[in-house]
Design a protein that fits this description.
Blueprint (H helix, E strand, L loop, with lengths): L9 H11 L22 H10 L11 H11 L14 H23 L5 H11 L4
Helix pairs in contact: 1-3, 4-5
């Protein structure tokens, strides 16, 4: 869920999640978040982010510390927050190829009237990182 929210929306989202979960329930997630060393001012970091954000089907990027802090402010006890132990690079390249093929299929289906226009708009927005 976190890749879809702007930083200023994290607290509201975490509070709503905490509110709707049953008392004592556990929330677990695996998300694509920014590496703590990611620097928005670094041109190479920014270029890689722009390249891979759409393949993650995400519209936003947040730092793990920001998401964790929002969860704690909402009342969650964060037991663990750790980076992935698996390499992401091959997966993101494969997802890029898959999304590009998927986009062509949607464009075709929209052109012959099988899917509504909003489907093509949605896929295009995901591939542009929600821009």
């Amino acid at each position: 869920v976190w890749p879809f929210f702007k930083p200023e929306e994290l607290d509201f989202t975490a509070k709503e999640m905490f509110r709707v979960l049953k008392p004592g329930a556990k929330y677990t997630c695996g998300e694509y978040l920014l590496a703590p060393a990611f620097d928005w001012k670094n041109e190479e970091h920014f270029a890689l982010h722009k390249l891979f954000l759409p393949t993650l089907a995400a519209t936003q990027s947040n730092y793990p510390a920001d998401v964790t802090a929002a969860l704690e402010r909402a009342g969650f006890e964060v037991v663990e927050s750790a980076p992935s132990r698996a390499p992401a690079w091959p997966l993101t390249d494969q997802k890029t190829d898959l999304f590009l093929v998927f986009r062509q299929v949607i464009i075709f289906l929209t052109s012959i009237g099988v899917t509504p226009v909003w489907t093509e708009v949605l896929v295009n927005n995901l591939l542009l990182g929600g821009q």
